[in-house]
Design brief:
The complex is a heterodimer of chains A (354) and B (895). With 354 residues, chain A is mainly beta. Chain A has two domains: 31-124, Immunoglobulin-like; 127-269 and 303-354. In chain A, the strands form three sheets. In chain A, strands 2, 3, 5, 8, 9, 15, 16, 17, 19, 21 and 22 form an eleven-stranded mixed beta sheet that branches. In chain A, strands 6, 7, 10, 11, 12 and 20 form a six-stranded antiparallel beta sheet that branches. Chain A has a three-stranded antiparallel beta sheet with strand order 13-14-18. Chain A contains three helices and 22 strands. Chain B has three domains: 1-103, Phage tail protein beta-alpha-beta fold, CATH 3.55.50; 116-215, Immunoglobulins (Immunoglobulin-like); 241-469 and 477-894, Maltoporin, Chain A (Beta Barrel). Chain B is 6% helix and 54% strand. Chain B is built from nine helices and 56 strands. Chain B has a 22-stranded antiparallel beta barrel. In chain B, strands 6-12-11-8-9 form a five-stranded mixed beta sheet. In chain B, strand 29 and strand 30 (485-502) form a beta hairpin. Chain B is globular, with a radius of gyration of 30 Å. The chains are: A mainly beta (354), B mainly beta (895). Chains A and B meet through helix 1, strand 1, strand 4, strand 18 and helix 2 of A and strand 49, strand 50, strand 54 and strand 55 of B. Strand 4 (56-57) of chain A pairs antiparallel with strand 49 (800-806) of chain B.
Chain lengths: 354, 895
């Protein structure tokens, strides 16, 4: 059962003009220290990444990495030590290890100050396959700050799958992650400029994700399960082909419960239906000092990947919006029209599947 | 006594003519034809055209129209013809005056001959009115006549000045006023249904005068209602009792034009809510399920419309509303915080009456039908919403496709078999449905069926029996999408109660027994439209409770009285039931389940307990009392609610082997003092709670067959003090209260699972400081202004102390439970009521009420929540359910 999360809307809608949402200036308190671990191991050849940082004060934007840690993966095939690629970011490079479903994995992290963090061992679940991913543009209802809903252009990604019969098979737990990749062909900017095409990879920011468990399914056949609805579309991201990559992660029951709680915390809408929020603890614990909590999760999951894409013409057809680099007046072009590598995460190396 | 020609005069007579000396007015011949005229008009016309002063209370007269032809008929015969077939009589009062009274007004003779028959000196009470010397010889007395049992106003009571022979009657609100010279007088006050009250009054100056009349024995209601003012409180043994009259409910400024019983309670000290639009109310820091809410003795489980903006009680048919927040007499049980006892009035056995209101989003109507020649009476009332038109004014299609419908219906038939035996059958239903753009919705329905029988054996002994069935069915649904579903749950509740009221000497003894069957309905999750939702059913528990009680209200001396009670409750959970067996006694989790035990239809587990209740009052002076009380209470039924305020789909839970009964020890003490028309009260209380139901973080309460793994048993302590000052008067009445109230819980079982490391923490209902002000100004006979102000400390919340990123999502790192608070809540409401009809005595009464709710448009926070927006920053947002001034208009009428 997936309960709707638009409860705010109904209250505000029915009270139409009398309710309101306002920014609230929250007085920050000095925060007790907390360590954040965000890592995963997949049933592919990697890279498998783990980051270590300090929790931030409320409202802070930038990550505060903890450098110099030693991270070791315990697996049936032995121990594997991560390399610190950048401060706080540790990697088991591509080809070092492929996770195997049914095998048990855990990590041990030794911080420079002597703190030792251990993850509860997790057995990698069996992979589950999607049939396909689908995409379409929709008019999505969003709630404005004034408390009234409005419709905006959005992308909706859904998947079809034929999972095992939930009444016969052992339970399964799924989390969906989405990445976006789009090409960005430069405009001819005159002179010696040779237009090139950039490829940009980014996580599909929605501050939400989809979870699914066999407990709520009446049959294995799932059609058009919506895994992403994303508004606030940037027209320039659709001037080339725009891919959405769906990662269907088969996760453990403990991981499912963790992500379920994360989802609940990030989807608070302030109404009577909100359960009181609380600190979400994962599968990591501080062996040396239990007074310093460890937040985050080391997720051991099998993954299946499907992609779906939009063509530039589809975006224009649906929205009628012209992206900036097509403006007649060159003065209105942003610099990236002529220099696409100025986009975050941009590269001129075309992904093999693109 | 010189009576001013004010509204009371209009109320009882339309004009006065005096007979000429030497002629008997009733001998005068009448030659008149009346065709299709109301009796009131005929009497008025006769009085105006002839030399007889006919006085009557218009509300006693039938509304039918009559045709009469009188040709030389003596006036006394005319009156006899007019009144005989209408259960009315007339009595001569002096040579040229008559008064029209109901036939059953058996003491009319004594009333009208008070000048001839000396009042027994022993029955005369003595009283002084007015302490300060008046500026002139004439002073003004503003009085109210109140039923001494249930403190409801008595209309049409006669106040006769035995010294001068003048008289008047009380109006619909039981009030009267007159001007009089200073001096000594003897008054007799009486009404149809009350014992006469004789009083010698020394009038020294202007004053207010409150008269309490004892009901006649055969009309004594089984339930003693107390409260109204500290003057009564000073005479009442039990502590912490509040009553709000229907008048007061309507005087409070209305939200969306709807007078509301439950919302009016929020103007009382010690009664709070978690925010605008929250359902229910919290008494002295207790949760809402700790309040026993009764409608005519039957439990109502979700008395909310539109999530909680309105209550299901129709104020037009409420006879009185009593809230026991301190001492709870032994005839009540099952909840540990308070008892809200709402009595629905019996319909009139004499007149067809009705009333109603038209509001912005709903309208109400009620009728009172006398039946079977006055033996029976039927009360019907209904309310229906039409919020749809409001939604249709919005352009957004989703909003136009949304709905918020509700209705409620009450039907009550009362039959008086004899003067001593009365039975009533009643039915109540309320329904709410909320849908949003066909995306999701909620609905809930309350139903109550009740049979009530009362028999007066003699003036000291009466018997009562009550059987009722109450149910709540709720549903949430999502009609579209891959996972379209409907989830149904509910509770059925059966109750049988027997009671004896015996009043030997200074004792008032109540003996009785209650049997209750709690049957929680299974939670059923059904797929809709062939969706992929898996069917699920979770069977729920059933419990039975038997209670016996004895309660004695004993006036030991004039100054000292005690209210002592003892209640014994026995509870059992009955099967069939599948109980989990855990590997541990504490820290239950699904991982610790090592097996199950199946129980048949018999007893699964049982609990019992004695509940002593003692209240004592000592009157240091007549108007100054010291009180104290102790209560022990058990509660076997609790609402599983893990949100700040209950939702429509929360489920009820009976005690099981793992979820133990909630118990409470309540201690309270206080003083009640009266200074003329000003009363003040100070109460202090301390309450301990055992087996409070707290919840683990992220507890999943729906569709969970292992609920004990989501709950944590704790303990609680609520303590505080309440000060209230009230003034009652004709022109101005008001109330001020301040309460300091703490409510804390502790969960510590010696194991790992605790809340806030086992320390005491504020409960969701901990709002330490509360100030309430209510003023009512009667500007003129037709204009009334009221002002209501509320201030509460913000309720506790759990708030983020930091944030972090995991899986690409920015997540808040939250504090310990309830260590922060919402901003303080305060609100000012102003209401203005204008009586449309000029004559207060008119049969058809109507008034327009203009309300301004949240007058200075404060955006009180219902909640603070946190949302990540583009750029990976978490912002705090404040939801104000009511964020602006709400003007409204409503039209109320009665006939």
């Amino acid at each position: 059962m997936k309960v709707s999360k638009s409860h705010t809307t109904i209250l505000l809608v029915l009270l139409t003009a009398i309710s309101c949402l306002d920014p609230f200036s929250f007085e920050r308190e000095d925060m007790d220290p907390a360590i954040v671990i965000d890592g995963f191991l997949r049933n592919n050849d990697g890279p498998h990444i783990l980051t270590i940082s300090n929790a931030l004060a409320f409202g802070d934007k930038f990550i505060d990495p903890i450098p110099g840690a030693r991270v070791v993966l315990n697996s049936p095939e032995g121990t594997f030590e991560y390399e610190e690629e950048s401060p706080g970011t540790h990697v088991l490079k591509k080809g070092v290890l492929t996770g195997k479903p049914g095998e048990q994995y855990s990590v041990r992290i030794e911080l420079p100050d002597g703190v030792v963090i251990q993850s509860t061992p997790e057995v990698m679940p069996q992979p589950l396959e999607m049939t396909r991913a689908r995409s379409k543009f929709v008019r999505l209802q969003v709630l404005t700050r004034t408390g009234l809903p409005r419709r905006e252009n959005a992308v909706e990604i859904s998947i079809d799958a034929n999972f095992p019969d939930p009444s016969r098979e052992i339970p399964y737990y799924i989390r969906y992650g989405i990445e976006e990749d789009f090409s960005y062909p430069e405009q001819a900017c005159g002179g010696l400029h040779q237009p090139k095409t950039c490829y940009v990879n980014t996580a599909a920011f929605t501050n939400d994700f989809t979870l699914l468990t066999s407990d709520v399914l009446s049959r294995g056949q799932v059609d058009s399960l919506v895994v992403l609805q994303k508004g606030d579309l940037n027209p320039s991201h659709y001037r080339g082909k725009h891919y959405f990559t769906v990662y269907q992660l088969s996760i453990t029951p403990a991981a499912f419960q963790y992500w379920e709680r994360i989802r609940e915390v990030i989807n608070q809408d302030g109404t009577v239906f909100d359960r009181p929020p609380a600190r979400v603890l994962g599968n990591l614990y501080n062996e040396s000092n239990d007074q310093i909590p460890v937040l985050g999760y080391f997720e051991v999951a099998s993954v299946d990947i499907e992609r779906t894409a939009f063509l530039p013409s589809e975006f224009f057809e649906f929205t009628g919006i012209t992206e900036e680099c097509s403006f007649f007046s060159r003065n209105r072009w942003p610099p990236t029209c002529c220099q696409c590598l100025g986009l975050p995460n941009a590269t001129t190396i075309r992904p093999p599947w693109f | 006594m010189k009576f001013k020609k004010s509204f009371w005069l209009l109320f009882i007579c339309l004009s006065c003519t005096f007979t000429t000396v030497g002629q008997t007015a009733l001998d005068e011949k009448v030659n008149r034809d009346y065709e299709d005229e109301k009796l009131s008009y005929i009497l008025f016309n006769l009085s105006e055209r002839h030399q007889v002063d006919i006085r009557y209370n218009e509300t006693l007269l039938p509304e039918n129209r009559y045709t009469y032809s009188f040709k030389g008929t003596p006036m006394r015969d005319v009156l006899r013809i007019l009144l005989n077939d209408k259960d009315l009589h007339y009595k001569e009062y002096q040579a040229d005056k008559v008064i029209v009274v109901p036939s059953e007004m058996i003491e009319v003779d004594s009333i009208l001959t008070v000048q001839k028959v000396a009042i027994d000196e022993e029955t005369i009470a003595r009283q002084v009115l007015g302490q300060n010397p008046p500026s002139g010889p004439e002073v003004r007395i503003i009085g109210s006549i109140i039923d001494a049992r249930n403190f409801t106003p008595i209309s049409s009571a006669l106040v006769i000045n035995n010294t001068t022979g003048a008289y008047l009657t009380s109006d619909e609100q039981g009030t009267f006023n007159f001007s009089i010279d200073t001096g000594r007088y003897v008054f007799q006050v009486t009404s149809i249904s009350h014992e006469p009250y004789n009083v010698a009054v020394h009038v020294k100056g202007s004053d207010t005068w409150e008269l309490l009349l004892e009901p006649k024995a055969y009309l004594i209601d089984e339930v003693v209602i107390t409260g109204v003012s500290a003057q009564q409180k000073a005479k009442e043994t039990i502590i912490g009792v509040e009553q709000i009259s229907r008048k007061e409910i309507k005087q409070l400024a209305l939200f969306m034009g709807e007078a509301d019983v439950v919302k009016s309670l929020l103007s009382l000290a010690g009664v709070t809510t978690t925010g605008d639009g929250a359902s229910g109310f919290n008494v002295r820091g207790g949760s809402i399920d700790q309040n026993l809410i009764l409608q005519d003795g039957s439990v109502i489980f979700n008395p909310s419309h539109v999530l909680g903006f309105f209550s299901t009680f129709n104020p037009d048919i409420v006879r009185n509303t009593t809230l026991n927040k301190g001492h709870i007499p032994a005839n009540y049980g099952g909840r540990v915080s308070s008892v809200l006892d709402i009595k629905i009035k019996d319909a009139s056995t004499e007149l067809f009456k009705g009333g109603g209101s038209l509001g912005l989003i709903s309208s109400k109507i009620n009728f009172e039908n006398p039946l079977f020649g006055g033996k029976g009476s039927l009360l019907t009332s209904g309310r229906i919403s039409y919020a749809k038109w409001l939604l249709n004014t919005v352009k957004n299609a989703d909003i136009r496709n949304s709905n918020a419908d509700f209705y409620d219906f009450n039907g009550k038939y009362t039959h008086n078999f004899t003067d001593h035996t009365k039975a009533s059958v009643s039915y109540f239903q309320s329904f709410d449905e909320f849908t949003f753009a066909e995306e999701f919705g909620y609905s809930w329905k309350n139903q109550i069926g009740q049979f009530d029988l009362r028999h007066i054996v003699n003036d000291r002994l009466s018997l009562s029996w009550m059987s009722s069935i109450s149910s709540l069915a709720n549903s949430q649904f999502q009609p579209k999408g891959t996972f379209a579903f409907q989830l149904n749950s509910g509770i059925d509740y059966f109750q049988h109660s027997a009671g004896i009221l015996w009043s030997p000497g200074n004792h008032e003894l109540r003996i009785g027994a209650d049997f209750i069957d709690y049957d929680i309905q299974p939670e059923i999750l059904e797929p809709l439209n062939d969706s992929n939702t898996a069917f699920d059913e979770v069977n729920k528990e059933r419990g039975q409770e038997i209670s016996v009680y004895v309660n004695d209200a004993y006036d030991i001396t004039d100054k000292l009285s005690v209210n002592f009670g003892l209640r014994y409750t026995g509870y059992r959970q009955v099967g069939p039931y599948l109980a989990n067996i855990y590997n541990t006694e504490n820290n239950l989790s699904t991982l610790e389940i090592i097996g199950t035990e199946e129980f048949g239809p018999g007893t699964v587990t049982s609990y019992s307990g004695l509940e002593p209740r003692v209240a004592i009052r000592y009157n240091v002076k007549e108007n100054f009392a010291i009180k104290a009380s102790y209560n022990r209470l058990y509660q076997y039924l609790q609402l599983l609610s893990n949100t700040a305020t209950p939702t429509p789909v929360d489920i009820w839970q009976v005690s099981t082997p793992y979820i133990k009964p909630l118990s409470s020890n309540n201690y309270s003490a206080g003083i009640a003092h009266n200074f003329g028309s000003v009363d003040y009260n100070i109460d202090v209380y301390y309450k301990t709670l055992e087996n409070t139901l707290d919840y683990r973080d992220f507890a999943r309460l729906l569709l969970n067959s292992n609920l004990e793994t989501e709950t944590l048993a704790g303990r609680g302590r609520n303590y505080g003090a309440e000060i209230s000052i009230a003034k009652k008067g004709e022109k101005f009445s008001g109330r001020f209260s301040y309460s300091y109230s703490k409510s804390e819980h502790q969960v510590y079982d010696g194991q790992n699972v605790t809340i806030n490391q086992g320390a005491w923490f504020p409960s969701n209902f901990d709002q330490p400081h509360s100030i309430k002000l209510f003023f009512n100004f009667q500007i003129s006979r037709r204009d009334r202004l009221n002002i209501n102000f509320i201030y509460n400390t913000g309720r506790p919340i759990t708030a983020p102390i930091g944030n972090y990123i995991v899986g690409g999502v920015v997540v808040s790192n939250f504090s310990d439970r309830n260590v922060f608070r919402l901003p303080d809540y305060h609100r000012l409401d102003i209401g203005y009521t204008f009586r449309v009809n000029r004559r207060k005595s008119a049969r058809y009464q109507s008034e327009l009420t203009f309300s301004f709710y949240n007058f200075y448009a404060r955006k009180n926070a219902f909640s603070i929540f946190y949302r990540q927006e583009t750029g990976s920053i978490i912002n705090a947002l404040k939801l104000s359910v009511i964020g602006t001034i709400i003007p409204s208009i409503s039209y109320n009428f009665s006939f």
